[in-house]
Design brief:
Layout (H helix, E strand, L loop, with lengths): L2 H21 L9 H8 L3 H7 L3 H19 L5 H14 L1 H9 L3 H13 L8 H21 L6 H17 L4
Helix pairs in contact: 1-2, 1-4, 4-5, 4-7, 7-8
Length: 173
């Protein structure tokens, strides 16, 4: 067993957990590296040995949450992929408002774009099609956050799926 690697993973986990805990209390732009390192019980050197920035931690955390969702619910269709993105949004509820308040919604857009262009993607959409889908899905997330993350997973999915169906049926498009 590589004890150094295991210890390093423990440090990364402590730092991530500390930031997630702080994000549940206040926006990302009100949190500093020193505060995160102190809460995690590590030095600033350990922080920077493992992460480049607070955004780096957020991105890694969101990717980890998404990975767990996609492993639990392997998608077999575009609807399954969309459902997993909704599940991921809901799993990120504890930090969503904090990211929004700190104007870091672009971090979520990166996650959405990565999922849409990633290996689970149905393909065949082309870059503009992927951009359209990512923009629409991100718009759903942005509205959900603006509404205080109140909708449940099922409500968010059902309302969004109905909106997509209405768009598809619109002769003006």
């Amino acid at each position: 067993m590589d004890y150094r690697k295991a210890a390093n993973e423990g440090v990364r986990s402590s730092i991530t957990d500390a930031l997630v805990d702080l994000l549940e209390e206040k926006p990302l732009d009100q949190i500093g590296v020193t505060e995160v390192a102190s809460k995690a019980g590590v030095s600033r050197v350990s922080f920077y040995r493992n992460f480049e920035s607070l955004d780096d931690i957020v991105v890694a955390h969101m990717a980890s949450v998404a990975e767990r969702v996609w492993e639990e619910f392997p998608p077999t269709s575009a609807q399954g992929e969309f459902r997993n993105l909704v599940r991921t949004f809901v799993a990120l509820r504890p930090i969503a408002q904090s990211l929004h308040t700190a104007n870091r919604d672009a971090l979520v857009y990166r996650l959405v774009m990565s999922a849409i262009t990633g290996s689970c993607s149905r393909g065949g959409r082309g870059p503009y099609g992927e951009a359209v889908v990512a923009g629409a899905v991100f718009g759903i997330y942005a509205q959900w956050v603006a509404d205080g993350c109140a909708a449940t997973e099922n409500e968010l999915y059902a309302e969004s799926a109905a909106a997509f169906s209405a768009l598809q049926a619109d002769p003006a498009l």
